[in-house]
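Each record in this resource describes a single protein on a pair of labelled lines. An example record follows, reproduced without changes.
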Amino acid sequence: MRIVIAPDKFRGTLEAAEVASALAAGLTAVRADLDLRCCPVADGGEGTLAAALANGWEQVTTTVAGPLGAPLAAAFGRGSLDDEPAGLVELSVASGLALIPADATGRRRTDPLGATSRGTGELIRAALDAGCATVILGIGGSACTDGGAGLLTALGARFLDAAGTPVPPGGGGLAELARVDLSGLDPRLARTRFVVACDVDNPLTGERGAAAVFGPQKGADADDVATLDANLGRLVEVLAAELGPVAREGAVRPGAGAAGGVGYAAMTVLGAEPRPGVDVVLDLVGLDGQVAGADLVITGEGSLDSQSLGGKTPVGVGRLAAAHGVPVVAVSGRCTLSADQLREAGFSAGYALADRDPVRCFTDTATMLTEIGREIGEQLAG
């Protein structure tokens, strides 16, 4: 009997690979004859690189600019897609909000106007140096709202004020923007396929834009939000002088506001193809081949809720399993879905740690997952 274990991380407690390992330990304790395939996955945001590395991709580490400009060691994944070399760049490992240290009270000393996506662009450049023909860009968890200007700067673009001087980094610096010079963009970009893993449909500006919706999460107050939104609008108008109508059209595309506007830069300037994050990850880890012919799939994430139904990892895995006619069960830290909702989402069963012990599920997550794995194994044996 082949069982595929394909969970996402349980945020704050275990990485996806650790979740899969704990479940596998419980299953094998009951049924040593099982053919277990552990395939950690993610939804295209934080944890995507870890999932790829756990599934055979190579880690390549380099030094890049962090979200506030200080150098840091960051990695991208190198692997293969369609028999060609590919790179996986996860924005959060270079330009993520979680990279900004917290003070003694746990508050992060954010800089919503000055935070930059430059480090993500430097990772892309490193992937090009490694010969990658395709670059997958997983965006989510960003600290910046710079419209991707930092990312493009790292790839050779120049963002200049009226005097021809580079504007300061971050979304705040775009207030001085008068001209964008794309003539120095790395020529390798034109022959590289870009895929952006994106699960939000926000435009770049306006009441549903990058600044208004996501800025407060990055430390922006009401004045900062207004400034950033206006500056992103300025970026669009100045880029339009260089690119024409496509710059304005790109600003209203679904996902343009993702990661502080990195989605806009990726789609409008790099020509990136937007795809649902979980679909991108399932492709790059080859889950389809693992599930074909399996007897059971186990998936899950830290919180299984209404947002999960919008296309998060467990639902994506469940959809793939259903296409192969393979039953799938969900394991989560907590679950707010009803039995009917679980069934309608395609799950034959659901197991939530918090329902068993709301305290221990945080302090002893791995052991509880092993217990659930054992329970599933006993049901199979029966």
